[in-house]
Please model this.
Amino acid sequence: MEFNIALLPGDHVGPEITAQAVKVVDEVGRRFDHAFKWHEEAIGGAAIDKYGVPLPKEAVELCRKSDAILFGATGGPKWDSPGSKNRADITLLKLRKEFNLFANLRLMKVFPPLVNASPVKPEFVKGVDLIILRELIGGLYFGEPRGIEVCPDGKRGVNTMIYSQAEIERILRVGFELARQRSGKLLSVDKSNVLEVSVLWREIATQLAPEYPDIELRHMYVDTAAMELMSNPRRFDVVVMENTFGDILSDEAAVLCGSLGMVPSASFSGLPVGKVFGLYEPILHGGDRIKAGNDVNNPIGSILSGALMLRYSFGLNTEAAAIEGAVSRVVESYRTWDIMEEGKKQVGTREMGDLVAAEVLNAR
Model:
């Protein structure tokens, strides 16, 4: 099988970590006889330098002709002057809007060798394997009116949380479909005891549930969910929520995995059934920029994003599992600095990519 992938490495550590994901996916191609065609274009600061804008038409058109997008990281002091309308770090927001990527899946999987890497006690994180599904292009981050205004008694900041019935319904349907592919359980997180938007959210979730009789739907307040993620994370499987809640809780849940650098994500424009167009990226957006270029950042989040791409955009479940299995076996002995433990060998970005790629190719 042959697949065309838009490769958007971006800036800082973006090229470093995406190079490792490409390396690993190419080894999957060799082992399973697939052809992955990578088509690279500049975005973010690199695109500002080349084209004068952070998301050039060349990158957009490349994405339109591709089966999926692998994204690295964008932005940095050179291109991100406060107040600028041409900031490199707005690239991802523009891509999400351009391709209507309204559903963001973040996989929180604790590999058995890493149960001691998390600051949470091993007995709590052992066996954790959950998805946080976040609505991505609506809510508080995009609602109008917004801004800072001058009032008689001083300045006032305004942001608006707003969701339509259609926006809520479509993200919930993604949640139901993901639950159907996993344990058959869906948790909807809201704040319906305070927010009218959440009242509507819970109402629509409840109305949709009879269409999915094989799925057990539960509801939970966001503050309770935040506490339960740390104290009882194994009770979660697929968890769906609005944009702001999802942004915060997914970063919190990454602690369970030992590091933000371990967590992949996928953003979809439709239901994750069959082969769906998606954008794949590590949630750390490239790692620690200060360490960029020093071959130390953890590429596993990017590598696992490649696995999500194989699973959801290409329908290659066995191949995706091969990458996840290779990662699990490699981290038994080798670690990057952010997940380092006594008795393990510390390696850099490129060596971690090499080790996972070799394990994918050689394991049987």
Notes: The longest strand covers residues 2-10.
